[in-house]
Amino acid sequence: MKTELWYTEKQTPNLALSCKISNILHTEKTPYQELSVIDTVEWGRMLLLDGVVMTTEKDEFVYHEMISHVALNTHPNPQKVLVIGGGDGGTIRECVKHAQVEKAVLCEIDERVIWASKEYFPGIAAALFGHPKVEIRVGDGIKFVQECNAEFDVIIIDSTDPVGPGVGLFQPEFYQNVHKALKPEGIMVAQTESPFVNAGLIRRLFRDISGIFPVTKLYLATVPTYPTGLWSFTLGSKVYDPTDVAVSRIPEPDTKYYSSLVHRNAFVLPKFVQAILEPR
Amino acid sequence: MKTELWYTEKQTPNLALSCKISNILHTEKTPYQELSVIDTVEWGRMLLLDGVVMTTEKDEFVYHEMISHVALNTHPNPQKVLVIGGGDGGTIRECVKHAQVEKAVLCEIDERVIWASKEYFPGIAAALFGHPKVEIRVGDGIKFVQECNAEFDVIIIDSTDPVGPGVGLFQPEFYQNVHKALKPEGIMVAQTESPFVNAGLIRRLFRDISGIFPVTKLYLATVPTYPTGLWSFTLGSKVYDPTDVAVSRIPEPDTKYYSSLVHRNAFVLPKFVQAILEPR
Description:
Two copies of one chain form a homodimer.
Chain A: E1 5-12, E2 15-29, E3 34-40, E4 44-49, E5 52-56, H1 60-74, E6 80-85, H2 90-95, E7 103-108, H3 111-120, E8 134-138, H4 141-146, E9 152-158, H5 172-181, E10 182-191, H6 199-210, E11 215-222, E12 230-237, H7 260-265, H8 271-277
Parallel strand pairs in A: 6-7, 6-9, 7-8, 9-10
Antiparallel strand pairs in A: 1-2, 2-3, 3-4, 4-5, 10-12, 11-12
C-alpha cells in the first residue's frame, strides 16, 4: 500500500508517538470515553481510550506482568485480589496464573472496554470468558472500595492516566479506602506514570501512599508504547516488603518479562528516580 | 506561539517519535552525514545525524553513563580508554570522571560532529575543550583499531545505528580488531540497539562477540529518545565478568542514572530479552 496511514498520540503537549496502521477496526464514544481499536504494523493490535494507548498486542506483557506479579509474589498467600480498572483483562489474566489466587474481582467502570477487549483482544481478555476464579463487576472502583472492609489481600489499580475517568484513582482519599478494603496484611499497587515527564505526580503519589502504608516502594519497567518508555508503579503494603522477598521463594510463572530476579531488580532505581522520591 | 513546529524521526518504517521544536539552530551536510541541531520543548537541545536522534540535553545522561561506567568499573585499573564514535563527547566526559583513567582517546570520523557538540552542547562536550586526559583523533575507528596492538584497557563503541558510516562497527572483523587492540585484561562495550525492534541484530552481535571474547554479557538501560526506549549494550571481556564485580567495590561517581546497584541490575534481563540470546 503506497498510502500510509498513521496514528499519532500526543503523549505530552510536546511529545508524540506515531504508529503506521493497517486497519481501523472499531471506534465508539462510550458513556465515559472514546474507545478505538486499530491494527498497527509495529505493535500489532492496539486499544486506545481518549486517543491514548492503553495496550498493544506486542508489548502488553510488560505492563500486565509487572503490575500483577510483584505484589502477588510479595504477599505470602494472595487468595483474594481486586483489579480496579484494567477492563482489557490483561492484569486479571496474570492474577489467575497464581495458584494461591482463589478469587480475582475486576471492577471496571466502562463495560464497553470489557466488550471491546473480548471482541478484539481475546488473548489479553483470556480470563474474561467465564474463568472460574474471575468475577467481573461493572462499576465505579472508587465507590466499590468505599464499601469494602478488610476483604482483599491485593488490590491493583490499573488505571488510565490521571485525567477523565481515571482522575479519582490518584487521590489520597481513594488510597485511604483501598487501605480499608485490604486485609491486615494487604498490599496495593498502582501504575504511576513516567519519571521523565511526571516527576511531580510521582512525588505526590509516593508521599500520599507513604502516609497511609508503612511500606511504600516504587519500581520500574520499560513499556515502549507509554510516554518515554520508562514506567513507574507504586506499591503500598501493610506488612510485607517487596524488596525483602527471597528470590528463591518466587515461583517462575509463565511470563515474558517478569522473573524472580526482575522482581528484585525492578526496585533498584536510577539515581534521578531515587531523587524524585527523596523528601525536599 | 500558535504555529507548532515538530520534528519527526521515523525510528522504524512503522514507528515515529515526534518532538515539538522551538528553534532550528544548525543544519549541514558533512562529508559523512546530515547534521542538525534543534531545540525541542520536551528534551531540550537535540543532536540529529541523518535525521536520527543522537543525543538530547535532558536524557543524554542515561546513554553516556551506561555505555561508560559499566566497563570502567568492571576493569580493576582502566588506565587507557578508547571511544570510537561518540564525537559529541558525552561518553568521554564520563570516562574522565574515573580517577584511574589516565588517557582517553576519542576516535570520531566526522569532525563536524565534534565541532557541533562544542558549539551547541558545551555540557555534553565538556571534556573536548583541552581536557588533560583527552586526546581527540579525527579518523576512521575501524582503521585505527586495525593498527593498535594491546594498547587499551577499555574500548567503547559509541556508534550510530548500523547504517551509513556506522555499518562497519557492527561487523565481526571489527570486533576481532578491537580484541587485538585491547590489553590482555581488556574490555569492550558497544551500543547494540533495541530488543523490541532489533532482536535479530542483537542475537547476531552477541554470537559474534561471544565467539571472540570469553566473557560476553548484554545489559539494558531506558533511553526515552531511542526507539522503544529499551536500549541494549553488549560487553565483551577477556577476563573480568561485569556481573561478578562486588557492588561495594564500585565507587559512586557523579551520575544521574548509573550507580553500583544499577550496574548489577542492568544485567538482569527480562525473560524475552534473555530468550533473544539463547542459542537456537
